[in-house]
Amino acid sequence: MKLKPPRDPIATFQREARAIRRVGEDSRCSKCGEGRPLALIPGTNPRICANCQREELGKSKLDNHHPAGIANHPLAIPLPVNDHRAVLSPAQYEWPEGTYENPHGSPLLNGACCIRGYYDTNTYLTDQLLLWVARLLEALDKFLRERLGPDWWVGTPLAQFALKRSSRKSSKRPPR
Which member of 27, 75, 95, 169 lies 3.0 to 4.6 Å from 23 by CB, making a disulfide possible if both were Cys? Predict the structure, then answer.
């Protein structure tokens, strides 16, 4: 999952290339199949991800993520360790130079970090909690149309949620 286009695509490529070199091309966790290089633990044989390593050690599989950076706000939220390592921490590398560190304690950078942290975390949560539901509903609608016809909901309790249209013609997508 990629939160947004990188601010510095060269730096992003370099970070990803270093992670791949550390764990090997096309590496996957031998236990769960995790394949994101930043979630894999370098030097393990067989290869293992942070989540599975912590499970083996009897440790928490959650990390405390500081959305705004610990220098800017004390809020921390528990997240799966692999997502913290491979998604949200790398998103913070995309912030403008000096923002995350906020070395002089600027209240403006503090606010910028809170906004960026909220944006990154909200995007992550949206991807994790909502997108799969949209895909599920689309797949279910396709299945029901194929089995029961294009108006499968007519005569069911779900009819109350159908759009009220004067014409049942499908709308065309806007040009891209």
Answer: 27
pLDDT tens readout for residues 122-136:
999 999 999 999 999
pLDDT for the residue numbered 169: 58
Q: Is 62 helix (H, G, I), strand (E, B) or coil?
A: strand
Residue 40 β-bridge partners: 49
Phi, psi of 165 (to 5 degrees): -120, 145
CA atoms within 13 A on the CB side of 174: 1
Alpha-carbon distance of 97 to 81, in angstroms, equals 25
CA distance 12 to 18: 10
Query: Considering the entire predicted model, what is its pTM?
Result: 0.76
Could you give the CA distance from residue 23 to residue 39 in angstroms, rounded to a whole number? Answer: 10
Measured between alpha carbons, how far is 140 from 134 in angstroms, rounded to an integer? 10
